[in-house]
Amino acid sequence: MSLLSLRGVTCRFGGITALNRLTLDLPAGAITGVIGPNGAGKTTLFNCITGAYRPTEGEIALRGESLVGLPPHRIARRGIARTFQNIRLFHSMTVWEHLMVAQQGGGLRASLAPLGLSGPLPRRRAMAALERFGLEPYRDRLAATLPYGVMRRVELARALTAEPALLLLDEPVAGMNSQEAADLAALLHGLSGSGLTILLIEHDMSFVEQLCAQVHVLDFGTLIASGTPAEVRRIPAVIDAYLGVEA
Amino acid sequence: MISSYASGLLADTGIAFIAALSVHLVLAVGQLSLGNAAFMACGAYVASVLTVEHGVPVHAAIAAGAVVSGLLGVLVGFPALRLRGIYLAMATLGFGEMTRSFFLTLDATGGAAGYSGMQRLSLGAIWAWALPLLVLVLLAERSRLWLAMNAVRDDETAARLVGLDAVALKLGAFGVAAALAGVAGGLFAHWHIFIEPSAFALERSTEMVLAVVLGGSTVALGPLFGAAALVLAPEALRFIADWRLAAFGGLLIAILLVRPQGIIDRRLIQALKP
Hints:
The structure holds two protein chains of two kinds.
Chain A: E1 2-13, E2 16-27, E3 31-35, H1 42-49, E4 57-62, E5 65-66, H2 72-77, E6 80-82, H3 95-101, H4 107-112, H5 120-132, H6 148-161, E7 166-170, H7 178-193, E8 197-201, H8 205-211, E9 214-219, E10 222-227, H9 229-234, H10 236-243
Parallel strand pairs in A: 3-8, 3-9, 6-7, 7-8
Antiparallel strand pairs in A: 1-2, 1-4, 4-5, 9-10
Chain B: H1 4-28, H2 36-54, H3 58-80, H4 85-105, E1 115-116, H5 123-140, H6 144-154, H7 156-161, H8 166-192, E2 194-195, H9 202-215, H10 221-236, H11 244-258, H12 266-272
């Protein structure tokens, strides 16, 4: 069963075609990778899915319902969360506040209830996220004052407290050391096991191979290959466009 | 019993505080308005015409003025959604001047000669508006809604992508802010029992912004301190006679150099907590 499906998605900016008739399906509960050289359209793909850009042509549907033309906050509320290549946090807010603000639902009345009284559920979720990401020591720190690795964790925790069905990760291990990357891999593996569907952009091929059942390769906005990591590694077009030949 | 001089200062503080709250709300979603005196003018004129010409009870008239101002705020908020930073400041400044000129030309409310005939409110009545509004905003500041507003201020793109409706939050903040300025205007009109367009000129708008910047823009206590400082400091400096306004300006610069984030901020409140 596919959770997200793209049919002939094209995104043009003036004369530049950033995405060219892209068609793919994301199986529910799986981790799928998107690879390709810089400028291949990977981040544009994320921006089209999340509503930051409106595709010039084509159809994007979550569980069969079209997302094209919806504003970003509506798409987010339907269950799509993302992280950014260059981390984007709310710099004047504490870690705890990041985890509270990302939780939707309950309507205006719930969101007006003073924080201390906003019902047990949002607090419990935020608490669980603090624990899961080892963020308790940073609970009341302002985002702007956090170390880089912690910022990445806060961004991921914020994305997950909204309880999305689909998580989009834009280069999640950029700037991480190998231990941090291994921890993240284990975490993502667990999340996928509990039913979360993940689509990730990553340059670190060993990370992709370790996690992704399927990989899509983009080059100049066009899908040039799809398959398991082992399969795409052997496709000559992929080697030419992206992986290169080992000397 | 307090002297009429002291009660005058306290009343002006209360009115300036409510006006400053309106700027505080708009700043909470990252917008800067230099035209909030226009909403104050709207509240003042609507409330005054209602009490003088139609015999409406004064507090109901002030509330009606706030509603009209709030609706005007949402209307102005739509074009303002497309602007930010210095461009929004310029656009709202233009709107403020436009509104002042409108009342200057409007004969029905006396034009440049001003409008009078209102019944004077008591000092208590002014703080009967100011204190509940302070409590309301302090409570709102502890809500997820306020966090959502601050998220929009810090990073609008990221805020939208966690499901926050940035457009509704900005429009809502603009509308509620305009309604608050309208309350301040209605109280101003029924305290000074005389209003004229020049009372709602650019100086008034900048005073509102200054109160927030000076007092601190993270919690509602900031605008309260800022408003009190703006009303009381020039009086406290009366002993140096002609130089007092120059000294007041110097004092403002000195405070902002020492505490660019304003007098009251989160760190200060955390430090004062037992």
